[in-house]
Amino acid sequence: MHAALAALPDWPPIRAERLMIRVGSDRARVRDFKDDLRHVLDNFERRGWILSYKLGRGDQGMIEIKKVPTPSQARALAARAAQGP
């Protein structure tokens, strides 16, 4: 999960089922994956790697993560914002 989170400067919302596949979870049920994910994200929040997260309801619920960008990611985000739409 850490590698997936670290790869992007800005984490877009993603369905629980899709994230489960993306990170290669061995859980059979999305509900079990979300329980594990909640513990992992609580740990990331305590470490200061993410600012907050929200887990949507059900298997199709969206997972939203507000992460703390690395210094190089912060520069890239600032440059993107300066360019405008």
What's the SSE blueprint?
Elements: H1 2-7, E1 14-15, H2 16-22, H3 30-47, E2 50-55, E3 62-67, H4 71-83
Antiparallel strand pairs: 1-3, 2-3
In short:
The protein is α+β, with helices and mostly antiparallel strands and 85 residues long.
Q: Name the poorly predicted regions.
A: none
CATH class reads Alpha Beta
Strand order of the largest sheet: 1-3-2
Instruction: State the helicity in percent bands.
Output: 40-55%
- What portion of residues belong to β-strands? 15-25%
Give a short account of the largest sheet. 3 strands, antiparallel
Task: Give the total of domains.
Answer: 1
Number of strands: 3
How do the SSEs run, as a string of H and E? HEHHEEH
Q: What is the molecular shape? A: elongated
Distance between the termini: 31 Å
Annotation field: number of helices:
4
Q: What do we call the CATH topology?
A: Ribosomal Protein S8, Chain: A, domain 1
> What is the rounded Rg?
14 Å
Q: Architecture in CATH? A: 2-Layer Sandwich
**Overall mean confidence score, pLDDT:** 88
Structural class: alpha+beta
